[in-house]
Amino acid sequence: MFSFVLTAALLLAELASGHRLRGLHGRAHALPHGPWTHADFAKRSSEDLFVRISHDRPILVPTRDDHPQRPVGIKADDAPIQTNKFYANFFAGKQDNATWTYPYSVWWSNDTVKHGHGLSVSHTDRGEFVYGAGDPAQSFEDPLFQQSIALSARELQNGTVLTTDTLTAFAVNVNLAPWKGAKPVVTFPLVQGMAFVTGVYSDATVLIQSQKHFSNITDLRLGSYGLGAAVYGWSARLSDGSTWLIYLNPSEYSQRPTLRMTDKGTLLGPRGFTGTVQVAKNPSGPSGVEVFNKAAGAYPAGATISGSVSGKTGTYTLAWTKKGVTQNPLLMFALPHHVKSFDRTTAQGLTSVTLAATTKGIATATLADAFTMVEDNLPTDISFDPWSPSLGSVGSKGAPGGTISDEAKAAVVEAARIELARDVVALTNLTSKYFSGIAFSVYARALYAVHEIAGDTSFTDEALRKLKSAFDRYVNNQEQNPLLYDEVWKGIVSSGSYGNNDSSNDFGNTYYNDHHFHYSYYVYTAAVIAHFDPAWLTKNDGLNKLWVDNLVRDWANPSTEDPFFPFSRAFDWFHGHSWARGVLEAPDGKDQESSSEDAFSTYAIKMWARVTGDARTEARSNLQLAITARSLQSYYLLATDNDVQPPRFVDNRVAGILWDRKVNHTTYFGDVTAYIQGIHMLPIVPTSAYVRTPAFVRQEWDQYFAGNKSGHLTAAGYAGHVYVNLAIADRPGAVESYEFMKGLTPSSPYLDGVSLAWNLAYTAALGGSLNSNSTMNSTIYRRV
């Protein structure tokens, strides 16, 4: 919950820094919702972070119900469909691609010869990963479709139909029925982190299969664990040497059911069985059996998230809905970033059972009905100004870290005069939402740099007018490939792929790819406009604010009750980062390339919340940024001491592209080193130094780029990103970065997609050319 101190501090910072409530036109600005009283603060301190932005229908874009890709097999009630979550392969294409729940992967077999017609389950130990060439290895991956065990029913044969229901952010029900229209004979509640794969059977004959074959099966005696006679267990040894535990929990008391091996690949269970069948891989022998026995019969059927913030500390809880033998605790696998931030109570449930979690390190089985995590270093003091762990915010008048030198200010003004004279209306009139958004943000950063950091206001009124004029085209939906509201999946998409079924158009925006990347640039730009002219928020009957709010709702909706958008489409609160892939089939699972744009998407919302006076959304964004930083530093940004990803891969320094199944040190657009490393840098904004630690930046620079010894700085535009990123490392890095930028002109090929005015201000502020009034801040931001 908010503390009074946090909210008051935000307002005081607004008054004291670059948010001085005085904009370009020299008039005092009231907060958008009027002055806040102590009672307002007290009220807000009791409110949860996950509350609605709006539940109104989007009215500024047309509506269509003919999306080029239709969902397959969804038993929906017209609720918004989660497009970017882990289980999307179950409603895409032939429904036969895998889903990763961590640590398992599961898929619909539907193949009598190979895998049967049930749900196949696989787990791969690290020793079985396939590594790419090189040292460090270019890639690693989990071998695909290596069925360890499968839960099925004899009633499931040719003609089996798969449907899904209860599609939420953390869980889904996968149903298998013998024919279309028939009642499902088994339902699988799939939940991220589940330790057991659970099948809920309804009057069916239990069939358990293994492509790897069973070597033997032995009974487990569970009475000593207090589970009662209703839960029965077996330990099955597979031919590959792995051990899987099997538990049956009849819905009504009965004698011990039987499991008999009918052939090396098949276990036949009771007929007419109603209840649950669970399987789990046991890597730990008798001690592992003890752990799994304690939780057998209980299973998660869904999850909720809650969060609170007080000062610089944030707490969030993933709480699971428990079914089955509810008197037993749940057993859930925690990823490394969870474990490192567990509160004391949750940490008490950690066990000795661990399993490799494909691209997320080693997962630890934890006895807990909920995970509570704590982040104690929220970026509450980060605003529009450049920021570093050692200096804090630097740049605008009154910034705690001081200002940049007069020489740097003059260089910023010289660059901005050229950049802001450009035709921003034309620069943003593109067919691509992504590239138009970048053009908006480049112009906005140049405007902020010259007005607030360099302090020159002589030409910024006209620049702001041009920026607002360009933005008006989008608010009025008059751009190329205009946006529309999709009634099928329920979201705001580009119209670019309608009528041509070209899923590659604008990186797949129509198919819900990359929305957090694309739309965040517009939200950031709107925040800069409103920073200078708060009255812009209420002009045109508030349509400017409404348009931006709807973009935020599309990819980062905080409400589970919004009838027009799903909750948190992009950001995965279990994994701690976003997924970029939407509804297209994904043989390797969900994926994301640009970790830095992921973090930027949350920073954009944070700044939008600040200028609109939405303290709860800003607090949630601060918490989300802290979670993102921890997650990215575990899985994407690989410092020399990274102990999460495989040692053979860590020395690549960045993940490249991270999927559920594999990680490949590459990009979608080329293998040039500056591309691969740089896509995890851009755009360089105040939160960059919060996510990308100085030590990591120095390691990466020295390995790949120092002195251009390896020729990796030949990729013009990306070389610019790499150089400005160097300023994060340390003062010598900032000086080198600033001197490099000072030698460029705004038309330099090194500045593709960036602003020289902003880069000069940023590199100077991080130590490249500081004013004498700048002092080091003794508070060093650290990741724990």
Quickly describe the structure.
This protein is α+β, with helices and mostly antiparallel strands and 784 residues long. Helix content is 29%, strand content 21%. Its EC number is 3.2.1.39.
- In terms of DSSP E residues, the strand content is 15-25%
Residues in helices, as a percent range: 25-40%
Q: Report the average pLDDT across residues.
A: 92
State the low-pLDDT regions, or none.
1-46, 776-784
Total DSSP helices: 20
- Shape descriptor reads globular
| Count of distinct strands | 33
Structural class by helix and strand composition: alpha+beta
Question: Mind explaining what this structure looks like?
Answer:
Belongs to the glycosyl hydrolase 81 family. Its EC number is 3.2.1.39. It is an enzyme of class 3 (hydrolase). Pfam families: Glyco_hydro81C, Glyco_hydro_81. There is one protein chain. This protein is α+β, with helices and mostly antiparallel strands and 784 residues long. It is built from 20 helices and 33 strands. Helix 6 runs antiparallel to helix 20, helix 8 runs antiparallel to helix 9 and helix 8 crosses helix 20. The strands form eight sheets. An eight-stranded antiparallel sheet has the order 8-9-10-11-18-15-14-13, covered by helices on one side. The protein starts with a helix and ends in a 16-residue tail after the last helix.
List the helices and strands and how they pair.
Elements (H helix, E strand, L loop, with lengths): L3 H13 L21 H7 L18 E2 L34 E2 L4 E4 L10 E4 L7 E2 L7 E3 L7 E5 L7 E5 L5 E7 L8 E6 L5 E8 L1 E4 L4 E7 L11 E7 L4 E8 L9 E4 L2 E3 L4 E9 L3 H11 L2 E13 L2 E12 L6 E4 L1 H4 L4 H4 L2 E7 L5 E6 L2 E6 L11 E2 L3 E2 L12 H14 L4 H4 L5 H21 L6 H16 L7 E4 L4 E4 L20 H18 L6 H18 L14 E2 L4 E2 L12 E2 L2 H18 L2 H21 L11 H4 L6 E3 L2 E3 L8 H6 L9 H4 L2 H11 L11 H11 L4 H12 L13 H13 L16
Parallel strand pairs: 1-27
Antiparallel strand pairs: 2-3, 3-4, 4-7, 5-6, 6-33, 7-12, 8-9, 9-10, 10-11, 11-18, 12-17, 13-14, 14-15, 15-18, 16-17, 19-20, 20-24, 21-23, 22-23, 25-26, 27-28, 29-30, 31-32, 32-33
